[in-house]
Amino acid sequence: MVSPFRQILQTFISGKRRKKMASGSSGSSKQKKGFSVNPKDYKLMEEVGHGASAVVHLAIYLPTKDVIAIKCLDLDRCNSNLDDIRREAQTMSMIDHPNVIKSYCSFAVGHKLWVVMPFMAQGSCFHLMKSAYPDGFEEPAICSILKETLKALDYLHRHGHIHRDVKSGNILLDDTGEIKLGDFGVSACLFENGDRQRSRNTFVGTPCWMAPEIMQPGSGYDSKADIWSFGITALELAHGHAPFSKYPPMKVLLMTIQNAPPGLDYDRDKKFSKSFRDMVALCLVKDQTKRPTAEKLLKHSFFKNAKSPEICVKKLFADLPPLWTRVKDLQDKDAELAMKGLDQEAVSKSEYQRGVSTWNFNIEDLKEQAASLDDDEILVEGREEDEFFGERLRNRASNRGQVSLEDINGKEKVSDAFNLTASPVEPATPSPEHGVPQAKAKSVRGQTHESGPLSRDISLTNSNSQKGHVYARPESKRRLAPSSRVEPSFSGALSLPKRASENSFSAPSKSSGGVRDSLADKSKASVVQTKGRFSVTSEYLDLARARPLRKSTSVSILESRMPIKELSSRPASPSPPSSPSFIMPQLQNLVLQTSKQQELIIHLLQSLQATEATDGSPNGKLPLLPRGSDINGIVVEPISSVRERLLLNKISELQSRMKEMTEELEEEKSKHTQLQKQLKTLLSYAEAFAEE
Ligand SMILES: Nc1ncnc2c1ncn2[C@@H]1O[C@H](COP(=O)(O)OP(=O)(O)OP(=O)(O)O)[C@@H](O)[C@H]1O
């Protein structure tokens, strides 16, 4: 049965198509051609990219043999988010700027929405860096890429749009050196509902690129948020990765809010021109009102001598293999890591760093994380941020906190959640006109001519609809991958499903993989909306103030009572504690917090015991830890045992912390007494001296 959601979508899309086919689209000559909305007219080829909610394929439009790209968005994952899909399709189809990717048309195919757009043969800057420029590009290329991106932003801002996901992964390159900004999944229109909105309040983006004002619910943000992300993208292109990219999202949020903005300030950055460094510094000002507009930034001296992309960008990929081979190599590398089962953190990190951060949070988890982060640690680790945050942090950051960061490294767990049901890959028969090498271009059978429900080849054969990603992988890997696939461990506070469509967890980001399920279960009950990277739970959600979530590819948190603002607005301590009167209240605060946490744990344990009792556990007590089940030779602990273990660990950790605190408190007390004695003695000396 066709869901009402799909019916609305079909109506919307066909309406769009009628308009489009009648009027044609503007832009390049290719864009003037009509593209049908019949999936049989398209042949899907190699995968050339994937994001949080979509897989992008090279494709051929059979009637004209045009090479195009098709972004296949998973509708099942967006079922409460029609607005966002509509917005993305609408925005993309209305666009008319050489530096912004537009869509030719879009239509539903089974459970997917296909968005037809120009194929950008060299993929994203992110992919290019990952394949061949791990330390970033040379300044002339950066300048050229940034200038074209800025033109795109200027265009969008002038038309009332905020892109909200500016990053190297969304800057696409063509063979000719042409540069286009893509992915409007999270873009927002400032003119929605006819009224210009001064600023927005939803929390959207990818943490490393996110402007501080976006992270602080209630503060509101506007197109200047894109300028911050643009500055971060500049650093990304200069270093090969975004600042803070090695840190878990919650930490990135706090570091962005509390620390001095990143910049090109270190020895390794001396190779860059002063005008480049100045330009970045202008973008990365915390006060959004002080950031320049895109239009103004375009006039900055850094861009005055920008070379054309054909000259300095084109040569970047002159000797590289085709995009699909590079993308596949990167995927294979990740798969290898996962198969080894050794370095899930590295896999997660790689996904996270590229901004394909399909993690889910619920606000409760975020609150917990925020509460458990240690500002000191943030500062210390910030210093290690590949050398280029260090000095700034030492010099400028001042906030100090109290609770030490809990151990967030979790155990890896292996699961079959990654179900590769791809059809065998067939060699394609591309037309020589569009020059797709026969050996390299492959079609994904089953997606080529399917409309309506997905064919079995590619259907979501596992009950979990999120397991239906199609991989064009060697048979050996397809056989191996499902069993060896390592689910996100959330170590390092990340919940990074290997693939976008596996995004099903409400990630207790500091917990172990083993605990994830239980916590996911826990949060499931109160989940209000699951949007790609985030789940929003009802418990801490002020529904009255809630705004609709943005597209699922984004980090999207409704305005909430998150403590971030609280934390950020905490008055900065002027210096490290130096006197007992300074230390005492802090220690008391610590002890108070610790005992509160202990109470919480005890409460949790009690409710757990109650649950176990109703489940039939003897005498309502926690049962003995059962032996884990054995799946493919890997012992998987039952959820309840892992949950117990975590709670017990937490208790003992808290107890030992409490003990330490008490000892410290005693020590401080005795220091305090001593100091008082000394003071008394000094006073009596002073008095005696005065009398004399
Ligand atoms: N037109 C295109 N031509 C070639 N490659 C593309 C094209 N569009 C997207 N890609 C590749 O696919 C990747 C994912 O696309 P996109 O960013 O649109 O997906 P998404 O699910 O919206 O991702 P995100 O996680 O960034 O929100 C891009 O990073 C890029 O490498």
UniProtKB/TrEMBL annotation:
SUPFAM superfamilies cross-referenced by the UniProt entry: Protein kinase-like (PK-like)
MF terms (GO), sorted A to Z: ATP binding
Domain Protein kinase: 42-303
Leader sequence segment: none
Region feature Disordered, mapped onto this chain: 16-36, 422-524
Similarity-based family: Belongs to the protein kinase superfamily. STE Ser/Thr protein kinase family. STE20 subfamily.
Name listed for the protein in its UniProt record: Protein kinase domain-containing protein
Species this chain originates from: Eruca vesicaria subsp. sativa
Lineage of producing organism: Eukaryota, Viridiplantae, Streptophyta, Embryophyta, Tracheophyta
